[in-house]
Design brief:
It catalyses: Ca(2+)(in) + ATP + H2O = Ca(2+)(out) + ADP + phosphate + H(+). This is ATPase. The protein is α+β, with helices and mostly antiparallel strands. The chain has 38 helices and 26 strands. The protein is elongated, with a radius of gyration of 37 Å. It starts with 8 loop residues before the first helix and ends with a helix. About 6% of the residues have low confidence.
């Protein structure tokens, strides 16, 4: 593959078999057949039907489908077609699948967005005629023309460049337009961001003009390479998806084992095979919380709504909780940590630092506004006035700084009209303009690189007077410049020279009769001073970084900008500090909040905390995985480097969140565990490759999202705890009854009612519990830590035993003390007949067991909210849970008390005495768990 940047433009033309007159239309058509259109390939979308079918791949769902089918066919073969149970199971499964499809992110639009970013048209030379054609018609070898405001339609080697500057921020990460030079010949292994003789698709011409020969189109461009990475790289499963998948599989296997055991136990006890088979299937239904996927989806949806109100839009539901598990946040610098807007931060004269409002400061900003091609734009009036600038970012910063102290460039141009200019030139590194003064004289203003201007100055402006530049003053100015550059400021030197009204030089300029070199004007100048500017950090980001570190999250900067600039910003934000630890996943700053506050005392970053793209290219991925723990800043990196960094962190077991806004960020956003794109400044490519979009472009919004994500995961864990402890209670109720020769306490339809209705609403209500106050002072949840760690398994089992025991106790009390009055006398005399009749006849024991099992779970839901006592957190602090308790309790009473519903669920109305027993038994989980909490606290 030819390195176009390392050969001359003449060699490039020969290599591409092209000429300055352009290709003929016949040759262009021939090449189009070979190379294809200048568009990006689209990834094939998964059909809606297949996306729907994919929702049924979960092991837990497959187990439920199997149970529904078995229930249907067995009842059919037995001559008693029962459609209620299979219908309920399949309805739940289908509803869950529909929710999954609706809530999933829409078909990937990253490539479509990349296509939209391509220039719709291009100026191209064909048959020695300049014409505008559709950009997709371009082929390698075409000669294209570029002017200010044009999009770059393809990758190309520059042939000519006149003050040409290209904004490639969305691709390279550079915070300012790159000055291009067609004459340059570069080294073969130079990074894309430094190829000043090349232009890349999606760039924008911000200044000057040029011509170029197309070297690559479509998928062969740098953007096409990114598109291919997006197509090929699969988004990893989120920690929640992994945990729920593991949980579902474990529950499904457990359900099958339980089915086999209960079936064998029943056969050993000489129970009918059909009866035991149906009981086993019912027990499998009880063992699997079939509403769990739907409940989790609903809880995530509620979390999404809350996060949207806080300017964080979630595109992929399972990714909501991933931020809560994040251990590293990799952030792009330009536009993410910074404002993506060059701003004047320091002004110096030969005396030292000056205030912008002072006489010297005003003088400097006046000169820099006049020697300036940017345009000041003011819209609105009074308080609603909006001020912006159009032009090269450096010049924009200068005129905006002047406007802040009352200097309007438009008025200055009228007061000091420009009569002549020498445009900026990369070889001279300066720009000169000449203006007419109100007194009739003329003033030449030159701005540019400090070292160049200093060599052309003989005097310095000092307190309204001109002082000769001595050796001492020269060293003083040099130290000022070095001090500013050490802060990663871009330094612009400003100088001037006055001419009298009768100056022959000015006269010859005006009459266009100047024959000698115009550069003679840029000699004998007076140094006015230095102006330093930088793309400043967002003011709220420093606190956000501090909060991330408190939460055990390590922020890492990944940028295409220069390492000195990146380190300066990282140092100011607290990403680089003297306390940066080698433990990447949980910084030493987390030890105490006071240590975090002390980290504001920054020192110069050590060399091992920042790595450049060139250094990164020299090491293998294995070495990067080993060494990456030492780095907090990665500068001058390419899109491939960003993906390597993300994957190296993931290889170390980190859960990586990646923020960004440019095209160059898209592959890394997709590769990360969760990608966060900027909503305002972000490109469509970044947004569509991301899992989350920050609508206010505020890095601090990530902090709120992290807190919300952690809260959501805690609430999901509460719901799982609640559902499984209740389901274990149901399993034990049936299993123990059959083991001891009792009738089945619950029918399948009753089990489904308990699982679907009484479990679902409380579980969903647990999902809106507010996060704990100290949630951002805890460690991130390790990605390999199971959902049932920290003793949760033991809690679930013991609480399940408690609920099952209470339901069995109600069942036995009902049979022994109340069913004598409800079953016929001939049935009572025959114990075997009692057992058989109890399987199909409504009776008090089963009804009481049904009621206690439901109501005890509803009471138990209040135990799930916190490790603290209900009295401490407040009974009504989650009003939705209280309402769900009341609604579900009412539904349970209605099912038992209303005869048509009682017939469907095969229960009988209870007397006040029986209801009293039910209520006492149902309330016991509150008493027992409260005693446990008190004992644990002591």
């Amino acid at each position: 593959m030819t390195s176009w940047h390392s050969i001359t433009k003449e060699e490039a033309l020969r290599e591409l078999d092209s000429a300055l007159t352009g290709l003929s239309k016949k040759e262009a058509a021939k090449r189009q057949k070979k190379y294809g259109f200048n568009v990006l390939e689209a990834k094939k979308k998964t059909p809606l039907f297949l996306r729907f079918i994919s929702q049924f791949k979960d092991f837990m769902i497959l187990t439920l489908i199997f149970a529904a089918l078995v229930s249907f066919f067995v009842s059919f073969l037995h001559g008693e077609l029962d459609l209620v149970e299979p219908a309920i199971i399949l309805s739940i499964i289908t509803l869950n699948a529909v929710l999954g499809v609706l809530q999933e992110s829409k078909a990937e639009k990253s490539l479509e967005a990349l296509q939209k970013m391509s220039a719709p048209s291009a100026l191209v030379m064909r048959d020695n005629l300049l014409e505008s054609i559709d950009a997709k018609e371009l082929v390698p070898g075409d000669i294209i023309y570029l002017e200010t405001g044009h999009f770059v339609p393809a990758d190309a080697r520059l042939l000519t460049s006149v003050n040409l500057k290209i904004d490639e921020a969305s691709l390279t990460g550079e915070s300012h337009p790159i000055e291009k030079d067609a004459e340059a010949i570069l080294k073969d292994n130079i990074l894309p961001a430094e190829r000043i003789n090349m232009i890349v698709a999606t760039g924008i011409v911000t200044y000057g003009r040029g011509t170029a020969v197309v070297t690559a189109t479509g998928m062969h461009t740098e953007v096409g390479h990114i598109a291919r990475m997006i197509m090929d790289d699969e988004t990893p499963m989120t920690p929640l998806q992994k945990r729920l998948a593991a949980t579902g599989k474990a529950l499904g296997i457990a359900a099958l084992i339980i089915c086999v055991i209960i079936f064998l136990v029943g056969i050993l006890k000489n129970r009918p095979i059909f009866e035991m088979f149906m009981t086993s299937v019912s027990l499998a239904v009880a063992a699997i919380p079939e509403g769990l996927p739907a409940i989790v989806t609903i809880m995530l949806s509620l979390g999404v709504q809350r996060m949207a109100k806080k300017n964080a839009v979630i595109r992929k539901l399972p990714a909501v909780e991933t931020l809560g598990s994040a251990t590293v946040i990799c952030s792009d610098k330009t536009g993410t940590l910074t404002q993506n807007k060059m701003t004047v931060t320091e002004i110096c004269s030969c005396k030292g630092k000056e205030e912008p409002e002072g006489n010297t400061g005003k003088f400097l900003l006046t000169l820099s506004s006049l020697c300036n091609d940017a345009i000041l734009q003011i819209t609105g009036k009074s308080k609603h006035q909006k001020v912006s600038a159009t032009g090269e970012p450096t010049e924009n910063a200068l005129i905006l700084a002047a406007f802040q102290i009352g200097l309007n460039k438009s008025q200055l141009d009228l007061q000091f009209p420009r009569i002549y200019e020498i445009p900026f030139d990369s070889s001279r590194k300066q720009m000169t303009t000449i203006h007419k003064l109100p007194n009739g004289g003329y003033r030449q203003i030159t701005k540019g690189a400090f070292d160049i201007l200093l060599s052309e100055c003989t005097n310095a402006y000092r307190g309204g007077k001109e002082t000769p530049i001595t050796h001492v003053l020269r060293e003083q100015l040099t130290r000022l410049n070095e001090s500013m550059t050490a802060k990663a400021l871009r330094v612009i030197a400003v100088a001037y020279k006055d001419y009298p009204a009768e100056s022959s030089y000015i006269s010859r300029l005006k009459n266009k009769t100047l024959k000698d070199g115009i550069n003679d004007a840029e000699q004998g100048l007076t140094m006015a001073g230095l102006i330093g500017m930088i793309d400043p950090p967002r003011p709220e980001v420093k606190d956000a970084v501090l909060t991330c570190q408190m939460a055990g999250i390590t922020p890492v900067m990944i940028t295409g900008d220069h390492v000195s600039t990146a380190c300066a910003i990282a140092k100011e934000l607290g990403i680089l500090t003297k306390d940066n630890s080698n433990d990447l996943s949980y910084s030493s700053l987390r030890a105490a909040e006071i240590d975090l506050k002390a980290s504001a005392r920054y020192t110069s970053p050590s060399s091992n905390q920042a790595m450049t793209g060139a250094e990164l290219s020299q090491i293998s991925q294995e070495d990067l995985v080993e060494r990456i723990k030492n780095y907090r800043v990665f500068a001058r990196v390419s899109p491939e480097h960003k993906v390597r960094i993300v994957k190296a962190l993931q290889a170390r077991g980190e859960v990586v969140a990646m923020t960004g806004d440019g095209v160059n960020d898209a592959p890394a956003l997709k590769a990360a565990d969760i990608g966060c794109a900027m909503g305002i400044s972000g490109t469509d490519v970044a947004k569509n490759a991301a899992d989350m979009i920050l609508t206010d472009d505020n890095f601090a919004t990530i902090v709120a999202a992290v807190k919300e994500g952690r809260g959501i995961y805690d609430n999901i864990k509460k719901a799982v705890h609640f559902l499984l402890s209740c389901n274990i209670g149901e399993i034990l109720t049936i299993f123990v009854a059959i083991l001891f020769g009792l009738p089945s306490p619950l029918l399948a339809v009753q089990l489904l009612w308990v699982n679907l209705v009484t479990d679902s609403l409380p579980a969903i209500s647990l999902g809106v519990d507010p996060p704990d106050k100290d949630i951002m002072k805890k460690k991130p949840l390790p990605p390999d830590k199971g959902m049932f760690a920290d003793g949760l398994t033991f809690k679930i089992i013991t609480e399940g035993i408690l609920i099952g025991s209470l339901a069995l106790l109600a069942f036995i009390i009902g049979i022994r003390f109340f069913d004598n009055n409800t079953l016929p006398s001939d049935v009572i005399r025959d114990s075997k007949t009692v057992e058989l009749a109890a399987l199909s006849t409504p009776y008090v024991g089963r009804t009481m067991a049904f009621a206690v099992l439901s109501l005890s779970q509803l009471f138990h839901s209040f135990n799930m909210r916190s490790e603290h006592s209900i009295t401490k957190i407040g009974l009504f602090s989650n009003i939705k849970l209280v309402l769900s308790f009341l609604v579900c309790s009412f539904l349970q009473v209605i099912v038992i008390s209303v005869k048509p519903l009682a017939n469907i669920f095969k229960v009988v109305p209870l007397t006040p005495a029986q209801w009293s027993i039910v209520l006492v038994l149902s309330f016991l989980p509150i008493v027992v768990v409260e005693l446990q909490k008190t004992s644990r606290k002591k």
